[in-house]
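User: We ran a pulldown and think these components assemble together. Before we commit to crystallization trials, I'd like a predicted model of the whole complex to look at. Sequences follow.
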Amino acid sequence: MRIDFRMDGGIAAFPGLAKPVSIDCEALPPADTARLRTLVQRAGIFSKSHGKKSAPPAPDARAYTIAVDDGGQCRTLTVTEPITDDALRDLIAELRAHADALRGRR
Amino acid sequence: MLRRIAARGTAPQRDAALETLATDQTMRLVRATHELLEARSQRGLLSGPTAAKQRTVYDAQNTETLPGLSVRAEGAPPLADAEANEAYDGLGATFDFFAGVYDRNSIDDEGLHLDATVHYGRRYDNAFWNGQQMVFGDGDGDLFNRFTVSLDVIAHELTHGVTGDEAGLVYLGQAGALNESISDVFGSLVKQYARGEAADKADWLIGAGLFTSTVNGVALRSLKAPGTAYDDPVLGRDPQPAAMSGYVKTSTDNGGVHTNSGIPNHAFYLAAIALGGHAWEKAGRVWYETLRDKRLKPTATFAQFARYTVANAAHFFGKVERQAVAGAWSAVGVKTG
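Assistant: Here's a predicted model for the assembly, 443 residues in total across the polymer chains.
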């Protein structure tokens, strides 16, 4: 499973934080891989229809773009703040942590 | 002369002279009263029932449920919670600025209640305006302090509400960059007004104090020197251009609204410096009147906005001011005529 993740917007456009990352889940320690799989499943990336809300962007709110490629299936969605879905929020927190690690952040 | 006629002239001459004197006194009294009222309102003393703050600060208690628990209502004393107090004071300072300087009664000019939620989320490193209220995170303690620490950030968020109420600039492309710029401009002016600073003494920074000491940077943005606010291994380098030659074409950040805002930001800074004195008096007034200008479309470009600022500078002030504003836009590469 590969997850492409991007964080966009916010009160300032920090180039370092806005860089997209590609997470190869299988290359992670097994516990991390399992955790990501669980979070993806709980968030219903492939099972739920995350309806496209055409609401105008709230000023300074962030938008997260998540593209999950799980071999057979592919799904991309964009989630904007405020995030009301707990499972999505947990997934995004985990993805941010991985993105930070990939960017060499302490 | 009129008094001499009144004292020594013929009856009809006396009557005419006395009538003229009476009218003149009346006009002088009217003028004097008007000037007195204007002076009072400029000093922020005019705060009758039409301009009263109604603030409420809420605590989301580290959840992402809005608005959260009401912790400080209008008139209530300070709490132990610094973030809540900063939000309360910042809401007040922003209200006082718009009311005192432009006679605007809250965000919608109709006394809209000002609501802010603090302690939103866990280690939440952002702040935003959700269309109805402000939302502030505590920061992650790693790169960011609490987001209420900067008055200009609080005012920046509230000003999004003002823009939404007036021009309704779409949060996309150049119109979005203008929207962002207006929040930075008035965010900075609220801080300058609170400090009583002249334009050439202000720091013209947005979010100074927001970064922790580990970050190599002074603020989120600089209107005085776009692109110099930070240069950090994790955050990257401040991407803002100061002129059209550096305009960034991108699909991220709604077309770079937080990046290209550097251009109109810098134009405002240049206009304020050229005009001198307090930046909110002339430059700020021109920008404010342009924001309210019926001709300004929600999809306005930099050039369209700029042309209206030039026209409004002439309309509300004069040739000198018009030249200063036109010169500022020219310096950042935006043609106004």
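The longest helix of chain B spans residues 11-42. That may be worth checking against your pulldown data before setting up trials.

User: Thanks, that helps.
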